[in-house]
Amino acid sequence: MNYSLLLVDDERGLLDVLELSLRKDGFQNIHTATTGIEALNKIKEQSFDLIILDIMLPDIDGLEVCRQMRTQINTPIIFLTAKGTDMDKIMGLTIGGDDYITKPFNSLEVIARVKANLRRQEFIANEPKEFGEKTFKLNNNVQVLKESGQIRVGETYIDCPAKEFELLIFLCEHPNRIFSVRQLYQKVWGDFYLGDEKTVVIHISRLRKKIEVEPKKKPSILVNVRGLGYKLILKDEEQQN
Q1: pLDDT digits (tens, 9 = 90+) for 76-133
Q2: With 0-12 CB in 10 A as exposed, 13-18 as middle and 19+ as buried, what is 42?
Q3: Which pLDDT score is estimated for 205?
Q4: What is the pLDDT of residue 173?
């Protein structure tokens, strides 16, 4: 497999175990970092197809490392967390993580999650492009540019992490239709995703912050239908190009 992976953890022994497991499964282009600064420098030097990032790093908190990475790249990021509460997981997804794994973990689980994220990323990259830019106009101020992988709010273009954008595109392509959290989980994350369903809720929240005027109090585009799920409101006069 010619994918380039970056593993970030301050435990050298854990990095060795991860690297060995991945190499046994066919991944050969593997790089490691033991600090946040080292990881940030590496993404400036070269591009990676996927990053596994520990939250507890000795110099910079892994959440802050992710936040800084997201200003430069949209590469899938899988968090490693040793804490027993859900807060680190939720915070990690909120600031731009795509997935998480709780320590101690099974190497087979790590490999399954890595492959699932790479497959989604590859699918998006290789999806046939139509002539021109397919645009979903959500209202007079917000547009979603499918081929560019961007959201346009007014005159500002906003980049999205891959999985977040995939969820938005799915909802744009199925407007005014209610999907339960479980349905969205299955449609967007697929059978290979091993996380829990709260991931969908967190990604919806992140999208609302990008496209809604009042994301918490009164969302008008990505709305929750109590007891049923979510739907994206697209009026007749606001159809996609």
Answers
A1: 999 988 765 566 666 777 778 888 888 888 888 899 989 988 887 776 666 554 445 6
A2: middle
A3: 92
A4: 93
Residue 97, both tokens: 């993580």
Q: What separation in angstroms does the CA of 186 have from each of 182, 197, 200? A: 6, 9, 10
**Percent of residues in the chain assigned helix, strand, coil, to nearest 5:** 40, 20, 40
Q: What is the mean pLDDT of the chain?
A: 85
Q: State the Cα–Cα distance between residues 160 and 151, nearest whole angstrom.
A: 8
pLDDT at 162 over 70: yes
The stretch 24-51 carries a mean pLDDT of 95
Helices (H), the chain: 12-24, 36-45, 62-69, 87-95, 107-126, 162-173, 181-184, 198-211
Q: Are 119 and 91 in contact (CB under 8 A)?
A: no
Q: The whole model's pTM is what?
A: 0.61
R_g (Cα) of the chain, nearest Å: 18
CA gap 49, 2 in Å, rounded? 10
The terminus-to-terminus CA distance of the chain in angstroms comes to 37
CATH domain 4-126 topology: Rossmann fold (3.40.50)
The residue ranges of every structural domain in the chain are 4-126, 135-238
Question: What's the CATH code, domain 135-238?
Answer: 1.10.10.10
15 and 32 Cβ atoms separated by less than 8 Å: yes
Q: What is the mean pLDDT of residues 22-47?
A: 95
Locate 74 and state its tokens: 């949209």
| CA gap 130, 112 in Å, rounded | 31
